[in-house]
Write a structure and sequence with these properties.
Rossmann fold, Elongation Factor Tu (Ef-tu), domain 3, elongated, alpha+beta, six-stranded mixed beta sheet, eight-stranded antiparallel beta sheet
Length: about 625
């Protein structure tokens, strides 16, 4: 299994010298580092352990001015080698580096008590006791301490054996197949072009594959892959990797960028997080405080919004939002570190809960939904993420980023949850899911809306799909509205007649005078044959206003008893069928039908002929060609 070890410790406590003694590689590569005798930038090496395994090494600077580089180097390591000089003991960066490792979720490590050749046995024993006492409340409380001297070679072989044992005892890395490589170096290699290096934190990448550099979404392609100076075809998580990128200049990239496959990560200006203020912090973390934010290999200025408190006291953990001046990309469970401006020191850190956050109101119910994201069980986490997403739902690829699961395991989980109707797939094309409980709530609200419409329009057979979508469904994804309607129809909670929907129990209720008017209108129009009566004259004779008659006329058209040819012009359905038959019989012997032919055929005046011809065109029985009509089906 690939393993990465990182160093930690105060400046001049012998980290780089120890790595050289172990591996033979000098990690100080810069002229300024050689001149000043301190590590400024990240250094990289590897060590072939006694059992043949190759251990990747990240050497970090110890000076307080370069802690940001240390944080970048610590991202992605499996265990830490903490160095403490026997002649100085615990120093400020000893504590800060250890706190950073803890905030980044590192749980394993070994301690090297260095420079043993500079102290006598009594001082060495005292230094070891001090170190044990200091580590007793940290994740390294049970870690072995090895007194070593890089100059004399004392303890080096024993340390190598311990490193081998530590590497062998690590748990297998997560099988997350989401390829991510946070960039920690960018440079040009003669004959190759632009090269980036980093620790591959998850997934796998191969030669020739397309990649995106996030958050800018710059496109590129893998032109070469190297691991510890050796060219390979592909590389998997847990290895220090150099990737040669096609079509890019050094200026196009920077430390903190993230390489991933196209359309996999989600650049966002807002993250929901679980934030812990370090117990050693000199003061509380205040709401809206601007801080140095470290994630992966990236450092940005960000503002911290506390969602359930005005401040987070030392040692306290709270729910918060981080808002960035430019987009960031992350995955659920990622760790971060925050540092204050003055004094410039590490004050806290935490865990990313939602990499696609939206601004929410403090002290609201939405905060409880964010807090639910601390649920680490994949099943509960899927429910919590969908709860927060609401009616917009989440796609399967987005859920992978928001749960940090392998695509195979997540797909199986979503299928199982769908089968139990805990969630619903409402958009198959986008693979978009929504919470099952929300579907039930929306269906209940939809049926209530249709029932209210029936009560307001008792003479209408139902309500159109279009009206439901534009009125009730305003603000909902159209595909979700369609899904809800189909669910209601499938379970017969709604019934449909063409494009009109209604509750199964809905029947048209007419007042006595409306029932009489309905019968009078039917009788009048059917007795008139194909020559319809004048509507105003009919209403005047029946002593009914247009306002009173229009609902009844609409009902008759909905029921198919009358056909509205244009405003104020109605035909009985039987009459219109007779006219259609006349037209079809005419076309059996003729190619064209002019307005004059139609007038002669039906005996109707131009007042009725032209609207009828236009109506037959709309019904797609005929089609207008010039001044005549032809039978459309021909």
């Amino acid at each position: 299994m690939p393993v990465i070890m990182g160093t930690a410790g105060h400046i001049d406590h012998g980290k780089t010298t120890l790595i050289k003694a172990l591996s033979g590689i000098d990690c100080d590569r810069l002229k300024d580092e050689k001149k000043r005798g301190i590590t400024i930038e990240l250094g990289f090496a590897f060590l072939d352990l006694p059992d043949g395994q190759r251990l990747g090494i990240v050497d970090v600077p110890g000076h307080e001015k370069f802690v940001k580089n240390m944080v970048a180097g610590a991202a992605g390591i499996d265990f830490v080698l903490l160095t403490v000089a026997a002649d100085e003991g615990i120093m400020p960066q000893t504590q800060e580096h250890l706190e950073i490792c803890s905030l980044l979720g590192i749980k394993k490590g070994i301690i090297a008590l260095t420079k043993t050749d500079t102290v006598d046995e009594d001082l060495l024993e005292l230094a070891q006791e001090e170190l044990e006492d200091f580590l007793s409340t940290t994740f390294l409380a049970e870690a072995p301490i090895f007194p070593v001297s890089a100059h004399t070679g004392q303890g080096i072989e024993e340390l190598k054996q311990a490193l081998q044992k530590e590497a062998a005892g690590l748990e297998a890395r997560s099988d997350i197949d989401l390829f991510r490589l946070p960039v920690d170096r960018v440079f040009t290699m003669r004959g190759h072009g632009t090269v980036v290096t980093g620790t591959l934190v998850s997934g796998r990448i191969s030669l020739g594959e397309p990649v995106i550099i996030y958050p800018e979404r710059t496109k590129s392609k893998i032109r070469g892959v190297q691991v510890h100076g050796q060219s390979v075809e592909s590389v998997s998580a847990g290895r220090r990797t150099a990737l040669n990128l096609a079509g890019l200049e050094v200026e196009d990239l920077q430390r903190g960028d993230v390489l991933a496959r196209p359309n996999t990560l989600l650049p966002s200006y807002v993250w929901d997080v679980e934030l812990t203020c370090l117990s050693s912090s000199p003061r509380s973390l205040k709401h809206r405080k601007e801080l140095h934010f470290h994630h992966g290999t990236r450092e940005v200025l960000a503002r911290m919004y506390l969602l359930e408190a005005e401040e987070a006291a030392p040692g306290e953990t709270v729910i918060a939002q981080v808002r960035f001046p430019s987009p960031m990309v992350g995955v659920y469970g990622d760790r971060f570190v925050i540092r204050s401006f003055s004094p410039l020191r590490t004050v806290g850190g935490g865990k990313l809960l939602n990499p696609l956050g939206r601004k929410i109101k403090r002290f609201s119910s939405q905060v409880d939904k964010v807090r639910a994201l601390t649920e680490e069980d994949p099943h509960g986490l899927v429910l919590a993420q969908l709860e927060l997403a609401g009616s917009a739902g989440l796609t399967e690829p987005t859920l992978q980023v928001m749960t940090n699961q392998s695509s195979k395991r997540l797909h199986k989980l979503l299928q199982d949850m769908s089968a139990k109707q805990e969630i619903f797939l409402f958009d198959k094309e986008e693979q978009r899911y929504v919470l099952g409980r929300l579907i039930q709530e929306l269906i209940a609200d939809l049926l209530g809306y249709v029932g209210k419409y029936h009560r307001s329009h008792p003479m209408e057979t139902g309500i159109s799909r279009g009206r439901i979508t534009s009125e009730w469904g305003r603000g909902l994804p159209p595909k979700l509205v369609h899904f809800l309607l189909e669910q209601c129809l499938k379970k017969q909670r709604l019934v449909t007649d063409q494009d009109v929907l209604r509750l199964p129990e809905h029947t048209i209720s007419l007042a006595r005078d409306q029932s009489e008017l309905k019968e009078d209108l039917i009788k009048t129009y059917e007795q008139s044959g194909i020559t319809p009566p004048n509507l105003n004259g009919v209403l005047e004779e029946l002593q009914v206003s247009q306002k009173e008659a229009l609902p009844v006329l609409k009902l008759l058209t909905d029921e198919g008893r009358l056909v509205k040819v244009k405003d104020g012009l109605y035909f009985s359905t039987k009459a219109l069928e007779r006219i259609r038959k006349m037209v079809l019989d005419y076309f059996a012997e003729h190619e064209d039908l002019s307005p004059g032919d139609f007038k002669d055929l039906t005996g109707l005046t131009r007042k009725y002929s032209i609207p009828l011809l236009e109506h037959l065109d709309k019904e797609k029985l005929t089609m207008r060609v010039g001044d005549t009509r032809k039978l459309r089906k021909r």
